[in-house]
Amino acid sequence: MALTQPVNVVPPVVLAPRARPLSVQLLGLAGQAVQMGFLVLIVIVFATPFVWMILGSLRPPAEIFAYIYPLSINTFVPVKWTFQAYLDVLGLSPEGQSAGLDFARYTFNTVFVSASVVACSLVFNTGAAYFFSRLDFPHKEVIFVFVVATMLIPWEATIVPLYLVVRMLHIENSYAALIVPWYASPFIIFAMRQFFSEIPRDLDEAAIMDGASLLQVLRHVIIPNAIPGLITMALLEFQFIWNQFFWPLVAATSKDLMVLQVAIQSQTNQTLTYWDRTFAGSVIATVPVVLLFLRLQSYYVKGVVMSGLKG
Length: 311
Prior knowledge:
Mean pLDDT: 87
Structural class: mainly alpha
Number of helices: 16
Largest sheet: none
Strand content: under 5%
Distance between the termini: 74 Å
Radius of gyration: 29 Å
Number of strands: 0
Order of helices and strands: HHHHHHHHHHHHHHHH
Helix content: 55-70%
Shape: flat
């Protein structure tokens, strides 16, 4: 019986990492410190107004500008804490009720109008983007250029004709007046067309060979692959409608249809500005959008990356 000779296994030689020179390490630490300092500076620049606004809504009106200079801790932190401004804007105090304030109603109006516009926008603009991206028809590019060119028209120039159309349709001073003019957006059509262009046409052809119709291709192939883009456009549209001021001021004069931005501006008249109510209303108007963006920011980043791959 043959004996097997033991094989001497040579252990691998592990090379110790070469220590970087001290000067290189110091330069790396200095670079990280500069980068961190720059990021902290950006955070301070952007966060300071929000912090001052939030804490300003929690102090009496007399305190808001009393501690601006010299700069101290009381510039931001209230000496006397109070929720009076929130009670006023929500109509829960005698002062708020006498002023006819009801920010809960205004918040509902803003949410309803923004969500309705986004829902309509996703349906109509997604269909239009699919139309321009996938279907072949005569003079498609010319029509698309015409659609995109409408983005060059300042929206202020369209206010008067838009209001005349709304009056002709007899929908002025209603929710429809706040929703209908904004459900179609050339920017959303342009951006969604870019998203759809990133999806391989082979998927469409495979689905059509399996018997799918064009609408089924849109529903089962295009939309599932464009979820980050759809959410990104929904966020941008929601923020745009949420922050609208001039059109709601013109189209809906009823107080029952007032949106947050108009309600906040109403706290300023020719002789007086209720800064505490303005800050409280601004906090109510800001927090939902910030929370929504933080919740969906991962989709927003993916959407921005996808839109930058082509076009």
